[in-house]
Amino acid sequence: MKPDPSFTPEITVFACIYCGYMAADTAGSLRNEYPASIKIVRLPCTGKTDIQYLLDAFEQGADGVYIVACSLGNCHHEHGNERGYARMLQARKILESIGLEPERLDMFFVSGGMGASFAQYAQEMTERIRQLGPNPLKRPFPIADFEPHPTS
């Protein structure tokens, strides 16, 4: 199947407030461009990543999801990024079991000064998801079926 060049993937990024979010901020400061379709959710630590957050992002229409954490061995909460990684692997198994490509979910490790790497990962994920196509769980909002709640 040939990818649709007009398809712009919607990607949700879970980033720790230390290295992950700081790398995104550094990317902006250095004018390292990354796709505007990237939506960042800040977490106190990627150790707080819950499998349900990851699955909910897909259910709510994200075409791809990834986590940006502190470098391995350099987590501000000691082993938070390792816990986040383990949860990401579990979520991948769940995605595969329901027929969604596990490649739609990934995790990257950066330090706060790695703005160029943050931008590169965003571009790589966007291209990967473009190749996979839209999230099959995504359903357009059925406006024709919408009936407002009666006010009287």
Shape descriptor: globular
Per the CATH scheme, the topology name is Rossmann fold
Q: What's the level 1 CATH class?
A: Alpha Beta
> CA-to-CA gap between the ends?
52 Å
Q: Could you list some keywords that capture this structure?
A:
4 strands; alpha/beta; single chain; four-stranded parallel sheet; Rossmann fold; globular; 152 residues
Task: Walk me through what this model shows.
With 152 residues, the protein is α/β, with parallel strands linked by helices. It has one domain (11-135): Rossmann fold, CATH 3.40.50. The chain has helices spanning 19-29, 51-59, 80-97, 115-132, and strands spanning 11-16, 38-43, 64-70, 105-110. Strands 2-1-3-4 form a 4-stranded parallel sheet, sandwiched between helices. β1, α1 (19-29) and β2 form a beta-alpha-beta unit. The longest helix has 18 residues, at 80-97. The protein starts with 10 loop residues before the first strand and ends in a 20-residue tail after the last helix. The mean pLDDT is 87.
Gist of the model:
With 152 residues, the protein is an alpha/beta fold. It has helices at 19-29, 51-59, 80-97, 115-132, and strands at 11-16, 38-43, 64-70, 105-110. A four-stranded parallel sheet has the order 2-1-3-4, sandwiched between helices.
Topology readout:
Elements: E1 11-16, H1 19-29, E2 38-43, H2 51-59, E3 64-70, H3 80-97, E4 105-110, H4 115-132
Parallel strand pairs: 1-2, 1-3, 3-4
Helix pairs in contact: 1-4, 2-3
